Amino acid sequence: MTPDQVARAAESVLGVAPTGVLALDHQGTFHRVFRLSGVRGGGRWILRANAASDFLHDLSLHLDAWAGAALEHAGLPAVRVPYVNLSRTVVPFDFQIGAESPGRPLAAFHDDEPRMHRRLRQLGRLVARIHTLPLAGFGLLDARPLAAASGPPRGMWNTWSEYIRLNLAAHMDFCARAGDLTTAGADALLAAFERHAGCLNVSGGVLLHGDLGSHNILTDGDRLLGLIDWEDALSGDPVYDVAFWASFQPPERHAPFLAGYRELRPLPDDFPVRFWLYLVRILLAKAVHRRRFAYPDRPDRPTAAQRIREALKNLARAA
């Protein structure tokens, strides 16, 4: 997609072409992200485009628009995404346009540990409030009702257990062949899933962000301004969202987040088992994703194999 195409897409919904189109430094695996400048009437806008438009229509772009409106309605900080266009009548790709927050991603403060801890306590409270919003079904959200304006999204699986176990054997096999999971580790994980099957019997799902990395959390340094990138949103167990957040963070940051969360919402009695069971499952999926897309391991972080091994040890201790 060219800057001219991006400008044309923006003009089709904003009524005027931007004078500047800048590709942002942080680009997603499946999306291209641009800042639009010089729009008459003011306002700061971000355009996200489907980088795989040759292969599929990106219905998940509707989830950002829906989540922003749902959170705003609930009185929570939200980022507005008022425009979604999958028609491909103007440009040959799907796109959305949303308001640009004046803040920065929380990742900008990773070297300021005291400030990070304060913001993580706030984040715990925000996530706890998001987890009060119920949804039907389980797992990744079906955006088709949003595209048809026929109702809210719902999880695409009938049970939470069905979703969590989806592709588990394939991911374990992939990680074993890649050297990220030992045979003993695979046996221990399968045994843990059988032993703790009751943890997955969730009776009702709530809204989960599904990708709570610091790059998706906006702040002005003193307060949180909202969450972005809801394409991986789910209906399910709140502990899964907590574990997904923890998959991005060192262990010493867990305490302030959990303290903030507990201020507004209790965690279940079996939280330690659920947390480590989900975290191992998430780390397996992330290891598969990183290897398939050839993302290099960061030299300042443990390898996938080390993280999976440590999470399995903590799961054994929690049980």
Keywords for this structure?
319 residues, alpha+beta, Aminoglycoside 3'-phosphotransferase, Chain: A, domain 2, 2 domains, 5-stranded antiparallel sheet
SSE order and pairing:
Blueprint: H1 3-14, E1 20-23, E2 31-37, E3 45-50, H2 61-73, E4 83-85, E5 95-99, E6 104-105, H3 113-130, E7 134-135, E8 138-142, H4 144-147, E9 154-157, H5 160-164, H6 168-178, H7 183-195, E10 205-208, E11 217-219, E12 224-227, E13 234-236, H8 238-246, H9 254-264, H10 271-292, H11 304-318
Antiparallel strand pairs: 1-2, 2-3, 3-5, 4-5, 6-11, 7-10, 8-9, 8-13, 10-13, 11-12
Helix pairs in contact: 3-9, 6-10, 7-11, 8-10, 10-11
What this model shows, in words?
This protein has two domains: 97 residues, 2-Layer Sandwich (Phosphorylase Kinase, domain 1); 215 residues, Alpha-Beta Complex (Aminoglycoside 3'-phosphotransferase, Chain: A, domain 2), CATH 3.90.1200.10. The model has no long low-confidence stretch (mean pLDDT 93). The protein is of the alpha+beta class. It starts with a helix and ends with a helix. The radius of gyration is 20 Å and the shape is globular. The strands form three sheets. The protein has a five-stranded antiparallel β-sheet, sandwiched between helices. Strands 7-10-13-8-9 form a five-stranded antiparallel β-sheet. A hairpin with a 7-residue loop joins strand 1 and strand 2.
